[in-house]
Design brief:
Length: about 325
């Protein structure tokens, strides 16, 4: 069974409610129609009657719950709750109302905070910052979280590497230039995400342009230090580095470049040294390798909130909703 089909099957076993705040985008409704037809999750779509009608024409979203913030009976409760959360930062009740009614992502986050939804998928027409800022202000981080980061699930067709072509790539969407401690935290979180979603043991490689000391540079040193920290902090996972990408994935090259490493040649979780490398890497694999790319998925927020690439298709949104629903089963 394909990875995304397994995720859909898991989601159906314990259906969760996912909120979609981007009613201004046709792709939201195309994805919603498919999710509802397959009975993968319960959906709440936030928008006015006009927005919903204009963007859902010809699609069956009759099983979705449509909430218009301007008329919904619990809106004042959400406004009051948001004000209480942010008044210490100087927010007034009037500002709370203006923010929630003017930005559906804030509204969605308050719904989750108040227990009226299990997760959120946004970002098809909003930046990552506009998706994550409300989440961190309202839902906040999960207990024990050292760093909120992002990952992609990459499903590469006809690929013998990784877990039958399935990988987690981190961080490809959020943390710009992580220091060694942050890079180690990304490795630990990404390993846990792989195990939760793929159901297999993660094998984690911290990537570099160097393999086991083959090059000297401050950038290499950062990855070496991060690897040391990650091994100490997450002894339950197989983690190693620094490794070049081919040494991490290809058994023969791993055996040649890092013969003493149990990770080299077998990695299914790839940790990039910075956001430039991660973003470039996942897009090359997606476009040239024709991989399915699900994300950026967020890890470290108290409830699942997942970002979308603005270049995503409706099919991509379906996948992220299904993954969000599975994450919500464990949050």
């Amino acid at each position: 069974m394909a990875f995304i089909d397994e995720i859909k099957a898991k989601a159906k076993q314990n259906k969760k409610t996912v909120i979609l705040p981007e009613s201004m985008d046709r792709r939201t409704f195309e994805a919603a129609a498919e999710i509802l037809a397959e009975d993968i999750a319960n959906l709440i779509i936030i928008g006015t009657d006009e927005e919903v009608k204009a963007n859902s024409e010809g699609l069956d979203i009759s099983k979705a719950t449509i909430i218009n913030p301007h008329t919904y009976e619990k809106t004042q409760e959400y406004i009051n709750g948001f004000y209480e959360l942010r008044k210490a930062k100087g927010m007034t009740l009037e500002e709370a109302e203006k923010t929630l009614l003017g930005d559906y992502m804030y509204y969605a986050c308050m719904m989750v905070k108040m227990g009226d939804g299990d997760g959120i998928v946004s970002g098809a027409c909003h930046s990552t910052a506009n998706t994550l800022r409300p989440s961190l202000q309202i839902i906040k981080t999960a207990p024990g979280t050292k760093l909120v980061s992002a990952f992609f699930v990459m499903v590469v067709p006809n690929c013998e590497f990784g877990e039958d072509g399935v990988f987690v790539f981190g961080d490809c969407g959020l943390v710009q230039n992580p220091n060694p401690e942050e890079l180690a935290a990304i490795a630990g979180s990404s390993a846990a995400s792989f195990k939760q979603l793929v159901g297999k043991e993660p094998v984690v490689a911290l990537l570099s342009h160097s393999s086991m000391g083959s090059a000297k540079h401050d950038d290499v040193t950062k990855v070496v230090e991060a690897t040391k920290i990650a091994k100490e902090e997450y002894p339950q996972f197989a983690i190693d580095g620094e490794l070049q990408a081919d040494a991490a994935m290809v058994p023969s090259i791993g055996a040649s470049k890092a013969p003493d490493s149990k990770v080299a040649g077998h990695a299914n979780v790839l940790i990039f040294p910075d956001l430039d490398a991660g973003n470039i890497g996942y897009k090359l694999v997606q476009r040239l390798g024709k991989a399915e790319a699900y994300g950026p998925m967020c890890q470290g927020i108290a409830k699942p909130v997942n970002d979308l690439s603005r270049g995503c298709s409706a099919k991509d949104i379906v996948g992220v909703i299904a993954i969000t629903a599975v994450q919500a089963q464990n949050s």
